[in-house]
Design goal:
Length: about 290
């Protein structure tokens, strides 16, 4: 029996492997045909998996990232959760980052005010692992005097705060008697001079994270205050991981089911051969 079963299983597994390779090749061809790369213009960044253009006719299954991309004329637009619409100038698929420029409302006397969030929305746990939502909160403060590293009106004032956690003065929020700054909201208020006070409860979410070996809050925030080109990551979101996990489970289940079926077929073949050779008769005992 062992030789018959082994032979049957070997042939079955070889056929299954060939079928799997063929099916995989067809799946790849179908994906490329149904989800081709696209651009908003000839010189624009290529949009391909895990991204898709919302304005395209491709299926939602063609994308698996948390980034919302669309075309506005020849421009590729990213709808950033905190910055709003941003022009995408480049996409690095290896590093999983966008190069973006926040769009300025030319009709607004102070575009930065539109980035102030009075009440943060409840977190959407579908995107809890999406790094587009990584941000450092900043608050606007008003000071009656220019804030410089050398000024120290109180013993509690951190003289280095202006170098790493303060951006400004912001001209469109200032007036002749007060200077407005954007300050890292994680700093204590008593770290600032006594002539400074918070002007609102709203915050501005600055994309990115401040780390010991990374950029400071000031470096991140200066790009946003000036609406300059900045880099944001789009990694995470959990969706690609879930898809890979489902694919592995499905493949494993398929192989396991195939092995069980192959064993049943091999056993049936063995019994059939034994009956044909007259080695078995009705019942389970051998023929005498």
């Amino acid at each position: 029996m062992s030789k018959v079963v082994a032979t049957a299983l070997l042939i079955s597994l070889i056929n299954h492997g060939a079928y799997t390779d063929m099916a995989s090749a067809w799946e790849d061809q179908d994906f490329v045909r149904n989800c081709p790369p696209s651009r908003c213009s000839d010189g624009g960044p290529e949009i391909r998996f895990p991204h898709r253009l919302e304005s395209s006719n491709s299926s939602s299954a063609c994308g698996a990232s948390c980034a919302r991309l669309a075309c506005s004329g020849p421009d590729t637009i990213l709808h950033h959760p905190f910055l709003g619409p941003c022009k995408v100038t480049a996409i690095d698929y290896k590093k999983a980052v966008f190069q973006i420029i926040p769009l300025v409302d030319s009709l607004s006397p102070c575009p930065l005010q539109k980035l102030i969030i009075e009440n943060l929305p409840k977190p959407d746990y579908r995107y809890s692992r999406c790094s587009l939502y990584d941000a450092q909160p900043g608050k606007t403060v008003s000071c009656s005097k220019l804030l410089t590293p050398s000024s120290s009106p109180t013993d509690n004032y951190d003289a280095n705060i202006a170098d790493r956690a303060v951006v400004g003065p912001i001209s469109c929020l200032s007036d002749p008697s007060h200077f407005s700054y954007l300050v890292d909201a994680n700093e204590y208020i008593y770290s600032l001079p006594l002539n400074c006070k918070a002007v609102s409860k709203g915050i501005i979410q600055i994309p990115g994270l401040v780390t010991a070996d990374g950029p400071t809050f000031k470096q991140l925030a200066e790009r946003i205050v000036n609406f300059a080109e900045t880099t944001v990551s789009w990694s995470g979101g959990g969706i690609p991981y879930n898809c890979s996990r489902i694919k592995v489970i499905a493949a494993t289940s398929s192989v396991a089911a195939f092995v069980v079926i192959s064993l049943v077929v091999a056993t049936a073949l063995y019994i059939s051969l034994k009956l044909r050779n007259g080695e078995w008769k009705e019942g389970l005992g051998p023929k005498y």
